[in-house]
Design brief:
Radius of gyration: 16 Å
Distance between the termini: 16 Å
Largest sheet: none
Number of helices: 2
Structural class: mainly alpha
Oligomer: single chain
Amino acid sequence: IEIDEFIKTRTEINAIGKNIYQLLKILRSGNSVKINENNLNKTMDNIRDKIDILSDQLGAIIEKNNERI
């Protein structure tokens, strides 16, 4: 079960990373993109919260696995 949780958590972290990378690519391209500042701030807050949750879950999985060793 822990392995399944680990894989799911890692997949979610990778998806968040890809989304951040795509956003940065758009911003760096210099193309005129109008970004709603409030929406961007909410999105970044949501990403930060999700990363914190996933990080905690991953830490718990690692602790469980270390107890078995």
